[in-house]
Design brief:
mainly beta, disordered N terminus, Gram_neg_porin_domain, Porin, 16-stranded antiparallel beta barrel, ion transport, membrane, globular, cell outer membrane
């Protein structure tokens, strides 16, 4: 309660006539699991990356100063009620957006936007990306800068740089480009990392470089996305994810995803372990800020050393 009051106090302190756009927000996200997903028990209650945050801007005219702070809200018997997620500040105007702090890289964000099951219990975990996307589509990167260009005739560009504070470990850097027009989208992102150490880029352990090529098609009620990642790591890992969503009604969205990982590294675990996954689900808006969902997910690993994950999740997202 004290930390929640602190958030409100910080937001109130920043509110001035020149800073009219301030928002305190949150999401309660949780699921009840059955099947192998629940582990040794028949069922389990899990947190799906619940959060609380503050965001706002300051300035008048074209150029504005922006800030965004978000913390994880642990609703599943955690000893620490609030944990760090991200916090950044920056500038935004006609020349684009520049942010700096602890943040999601552009490489990550292009993947988040394409994954209909992000921050549910689909795949190998109870939050983050579904199977078929790398660890780079998860977590938050320290000591980082990110730039997003304005749209120029359908083209947008992005870049990121994550400073290393460890001797002998390189910084992490990324560049990307996307073209979107007429309901179609094509893009590519590349990350330069350091296989010999963990860079400040989240999910970069033991990866020297990564390239992600993606595409999407919006055909009215139907939306289809494709992602293909190539990692320069111990297993020369490739990851493929194909997903689709269909707005069956104004309140209901159906979703399906297929993910495949090909890795020569027998010691790889989790999202980078060789195997495939299929996930299907339905999302229903009970109220404008309340969504319930049901999904079935099956992750089948090639190696017997990895534990397959199969089961049903019933979840809720309550925003405020």
């Amino acid at each position: 309660m004290k930390k929640t009051l602190l958030l409100a106090s910080i937001a109130a302190a920043f509110t001035t006539p020149a800073m009219a756009e301030n928002t305190i927000y949150g999401d309660f996200r949780a699921s009840v699991l059955t099947g192998d997903m629940a582990g040794a028990t028949d069922s389990a209650f899990v947190n799906n990356a619940s959060r609380i945050g503050i965001k706002g801007s300051q300035g008048e005219g074209d150029l504005k100063a922006i800030y965004h702070i978000e913390m994880g809200a642990n609703n599943d018997a955690a000893t620490t009620p609030l944990t760090s997620r991200f916090y950044f500040a920056g500038l935004q105007g006609s020349m684009g957006k520049l942010i700096y702090g602890r943040l999601s890289t552009p490489y990550k964000m292009t993947g988040v936007k394409q994954d209909p099951f992000y921050d549910t219990s689909a795949g190998t975990a109870n939050g983050g990306s579904n199977y078929g996307s790398s660890n780079l589509i998860n977590g938050f990167s320290e000591n980082s800068f990110a730039y997003y260009s304005p749209k120029m005739g359908g083209l947008t560009f992005n870049a990121s740089y994550s400073m290393s504070e460890t001797a002998g470990v390189d910084a992490g850097a990324g560049v990307g480009v996307e073209y979107a027009a007429g309901g179609m989208k094509f893009g590519v992102n590349h990350m330069m990392l350091d296989k010999n150490g963990t860079t400040p880029v989240a999910g970069s352990a033991n990866i020297d470089s990564a390239t992600r090529v993606y595409a999407g098609a919006n055909m009215g009620a139907l939306n289809v996305n494709l992602s293909y990642e190539m990692l320069d790591d111990a297993g020369d890992t490739t990851l493929t994810q194909i997903n689709a969503t269909y707005n069956a009604t104004k309140s209901m969205k159906l979703a399906a995803s297929y993910g495949m990982v090909d890795s020569d590294n027998a010691a790889a675990t989790g999202r980078h372990a060789d195997g495939d996954n299929i996930t299907v689900g339905a999302f229903y808006n009970v109220l404008p800020k309340t969504t319930v969902h049901a999904l079935y997910t099956n992750t089948d690993f090639t190696s017997a050393a990895q534990t397959d994950r199969d089961g049903v999740a019933l979840g809720v997202k309550q925003a405020f």
